[in-house]
Amino acid sequence: MSKGEKQSKEEYLTEKRFADGVKCPHCNGSHIQRNGKARGYQQYICVTAGNTFPSRQTR
Ligand SMILES: [Zn+2]
C-alpha cells in the first residue's frame, strides 16, 4: 500500500466525519472549512468565528 493510498483513506474518513457534521467546538457553528493540516491531523476553521481546530478534537 502506497503512502498516497493511506492518505486518501484518511481523507475519506475525514470527509465522512465531516459529512456526519463537524461543528465548531467554540461556537458550535456548522459553517466549517478545511484549513490544511497540522501534526498530521486535518485542521478546520470556523468561518463564523475564525477559530481553527483539529478534526480529532471534534466528535
Ligand atoms: Zn466557531
Number of E strands: 3
Structural class given helices, strands, pairing? alpha+beta
Q: How many structural domains are formed by the residues?
A: 1
User: What general outline do the C-alpha atoms trace?
Assistant: elongated
Bound molecules: zinc ion
Secondary structure tally, helices? 1
Overall pLDDT, averaged?
A: 78
Helicity, in percent? 25-40%
* Low-confidence blocks of residues: none
Helix/strand order: HEEE
Write the layout of secondary structure elements.
Elements lengths: L2 H19 L10 E7 L2 E6 L5 E3 L5
Antiparallel strand pairs: 1-2, 2-3
Give short descriptive properties of this protein.
binds zinc ion, single chain, 59 residues, alpha+beta, 3-stranded antiparallel β-sheet
Description:
- The protein is an alpha+beta fold.
- It is built from one helix and three strands.
- It has one domain (about 5-55).
- Helix content is about 30%, strand content about 25%.
- The chain has a three-stranded antiparallel sheet with strand order 1-2-3, with no helix packed on it.
- The chain is elongated.
- The N and C termini lie far apart (about 30 Å).
- The mean pLDDT is about 80.
- Bound molecules: zinc ion.
- Zinc ion binds near residues 46 and 48.
- The site of zinc ion has 8 residues, from loops.
